[in-house]
Amino acid sequence: MEFMTFTKRYGHSGFTLLEVMIAVAIIAIAFTAVLGSQSQSVSLAIESRFNTMAPLLAQRKMAQVESEKLEGLASDSGDFGEDFPGYTWQVDVRDVVFEELLGVPEYLKRIDVTVAWGEDKPYQYHLRLYRFFPRAP
Q1: What is the C-alpha to C-alpha distance for residues 57 and 90, in angstroms, rounded to an integer?
Q2: Buried b or exposed e, range 36-55, using 16+ CB within 10 angstroms
């Protein structure tokens, strides 16, 4: 009952500065957590999109490389055009050398395909294939 007397006597009804500051602090902490979660969600969505698209594009490029004959096989790079903006590819073709078989022509090739995305290429996907070319008769 004394509280009722206090309000009636001084005519104060409302919140104190301390109560308002505590409420603002609680709201700020909640908003910080929500915004951090939103930022992480966007980042995961971007990474998920790359992790879905890059293997498909790398397999597509590797299929094109596999259809090449030995004479047409060379290292190269480029992009996927307007259909996949920001995605680039690089093909690296190297001979596989066996120390024991020096002097024997190399017919085994190591083919590396790299698909990258982003401004400074922060996302990269690598695919490697070894391909044997039989000797011409």
Answers
A1: 11
A2: eeeeeeeeeeeeeebeebbe
Paired with 115 in beta bridges are: 89, 125
**Number of C-beta neighbours around residue 85 at 10 A:** 9
Burial (CB count within 10 angstroms: exposed 0-12, middle 13-18, buried 19+), residue 73? middle
The answer, as to whether pTM is greater than 0.90, is: no
The tens digit of pLDDT for each residue in 104-132 reads 556 788 999 999 998 887 889 999 998 88
Nearest Cα to 114, choosing from 72, 69, 79? 79
